[in-house]
Write a structure and sequence with these properties.
alpha+beta, Jelly Rolls, 2 helices, 37% strand, globular
């Protein structure tokens, strides 16, 4: 294995309207993504077996946890434990944050979503299949 340098401006993965730009090579351990997108973009409530950390670079990130929403502003760090049902949405189009994931299938999930879910709104059946293959459980309302 060699040391990897990710160049500035490297391409991103399109995931449910957001862009996740991988900042690490995907050796299977810690992964870091620069995440951005339009205001109100974000995933449905879900859980996965890896820890996730968000570090807000610009704007605000609205977070769903335990049935309520809270807001993290630029400079804030949010830690989501493994298997915790959560969601988020970007507070504005200027919102940019780092998504840091522990070992698991996060990168594989994002890559498969980018390759297989190419329209918005997405086909929820296809989203659930990709999620299930990668250890994610989407928590649908009702």
């Amino acid at each position: 294995m060699t040391i990897a340098i990710t160049p500035a401006g490297a391409g991103g993965l399109s995931v449910l309207g957001e862009t996740l730009r991988p900042l690490t090579p995907g050796y299977g351990g810690i992964e870091i993504f620069e995440t951005s997108g339009p205001a109100q973009a974000g995933p449905p409530p879900h859980r996965h077996p890896w820890e996730e950390i968000y570090f807000v670079l610009e704007g605000t990130l609205e977070l769903f946890d335990d049935g309520s929403w809270s807001t993290a502003s630029a400079g804030a760090t949010v830690t989501v434990p493994p298997n915790q049902v959560h969601s988020y949405r970007l507070g504005s189009a200027e919102t940019r944050f780092l998504t840091i994931t522990g070992p698991g299938a996060a990168r594989q999930f994002f890559e498969e979503m980018d390759a297989e879910i190419t329209t918005l709104p997405p086909d929820i059946g296809r989203v659930l299949k990709v999620a299930g293959r990668n250890g994610l459980d989407v928590v649908l309302p009702g």
